[in-house]
């Protein structure tokens, strides 16, 4: 949405950089694809270091050669802060301003983090954050503006908010109550390759359990069996087009292709509208959990990483939740 609003104002403005298909459609002159940045964790990053280093070098070289008016870095603190560190000294005293969008989750980590605060104070001209509490945290050491989550700029979310303000229809109205056969459990495995591989088996275990395919203990009928029989749940996996082939493959390998439908929704408004039609969701922690909350979908949030990343995260985390409450 931010790039879209800029592209609506014809001028001499030229936007170049790392991005994906959505940004390219909105006018970005892509210098590199963003796929190498789609990795999270500690040990998970190690195999990708050569490609990330190569991307870092080419990005720094492009910035120093073009001397842009603004360098806007988006999320990916580990990569982007290294870019900023490499260019700041060379660009000191020049016209280039550095803007970072989506603040690092420093508030969620134990300790004062004095070094990171000093780095941001000395090297970032403007920090754009998503939530008011982040503005309160960062504004003491770097110029900070709260933009709000981009998701709330979409039509589907505004429509949901307006419906919440309107009087509810009579409970006897057939339109306000979903038919039993229409109950859909939406499964969202994440948008990164490593997330899909890690979480699809877990999500399909949910399907097996809820559909009664996981054998119960002898002589027992589980609560999940009763729920599945009563509500005749439908199961859908919502993924991005780039991951659909892998998701289909995993679903087929588990023999669940007859009861699990794999769908893609790239357009955000269509995705939100589809979420609103579902009864509940199980989602990998990430931006999608905010979309589900905004669409008023009851959601269970999960996240699985390798043992070392989980061990380290538990010791560094200041909170007990993997998702915003």
From TrEMBL:
Keywords: Glycosyltransferase, Lipid A biosynthesis, Lipid biosynthesis, Lipid metabolism, Transferase
Catalytic activity, reaction form: a lipid X + a UDP-2-N,3-O-bis[(3R)-3-hydroxyacyl]-alpha-D-glucosamine = a lipid A disaccharide + UDP + H(+)
Pfam family, one: LpxB
A Gene Ontology biological process term: lipid A biosynthetic process
GO cellular component: membrane
GO MF, one example: lipid-A-disaccharide synthase activity
Coiled-coil positions: none
Domain of life: Eukaryota
Enzyme Commission code: 2.4.1.182
InterPro entries the UniProt entry points to: Glyco_trans_19
Keyword Lipid metabolism appears in the UniProt entry: yes
Xref: PANTHER family: LIPID-A-DISACCHARIDE SYNTHASE, LIPID-A-DISACCHARIDE SYNTHASE, MITOCHONDRIAL-RELATED
Protein's UniProt name: lipid-A-disaccharide synthase
Protein species of origin: Hanusia phi
């Amino acid at each position: 949405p931010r790039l879209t609003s800029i592209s609506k104002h014809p001028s001499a403005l030229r936007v170049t950089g790392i991005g994906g298909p959505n940004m390219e459609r909105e006018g970005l002159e892509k210098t590199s694809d963003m796929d190498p940045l789609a990795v999270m964790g500690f040990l998970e990053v190690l195999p990708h270091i050569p490609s990330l280093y190569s991307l870092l070098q080419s990005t720094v070289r492009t910035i120093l050669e073009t001397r842009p008016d603004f360098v806007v870095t988006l999320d990916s603190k580990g990569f982007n802060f290294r870019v900023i560190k490499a260019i700041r000294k060379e660009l000191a005293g020049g016209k280039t301003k550095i803007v970072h969008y989506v603040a690092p989750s420093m508030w969620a980590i134990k300790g004062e983090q004095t070094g990171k605060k000093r780095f941001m104070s000395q090297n970032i001209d403007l920090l754009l954050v998503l939530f008011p509490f982040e503005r309160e945290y960062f504004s003491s050491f770097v110029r900070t503006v709260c933009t709000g989550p981009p998701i709330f700029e979409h039509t589907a979310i505004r429509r949901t908010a307006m419906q919440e303000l309107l009087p509810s229809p009579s409970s006897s109205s057939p339109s306000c109550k979903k038919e039993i056969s229409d109950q859909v459990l939406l499964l969202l495995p994440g948008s990164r390759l490593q997330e899909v591989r890690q979480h699809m088996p877990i999500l399909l275990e949910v399907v097996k359990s809820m559909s009664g395919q996981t054998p119960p203990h002898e002589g027992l009928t589980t609560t999940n069996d009763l729920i599945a029989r009563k509500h005749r749940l439908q199961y859908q996996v919502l993924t991005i087009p780039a991951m659909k082939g892998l998701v289909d493959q995993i679903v087929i390998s588990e023999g669940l292709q007859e009861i699990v439908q794999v769908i893609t929704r790239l357009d955000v408004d269509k995705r939100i509208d589809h979420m609103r039609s579902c009864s509940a969701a199980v989602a990998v922690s990430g931006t999608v959990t905010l979309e589900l909350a905004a669409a008023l979908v009851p959601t269970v949030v999960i996240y699985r990483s390798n043992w070392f990343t989980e061990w380290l995260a538990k010791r560094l985390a200041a909170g007990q939740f993997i998702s915003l409450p």
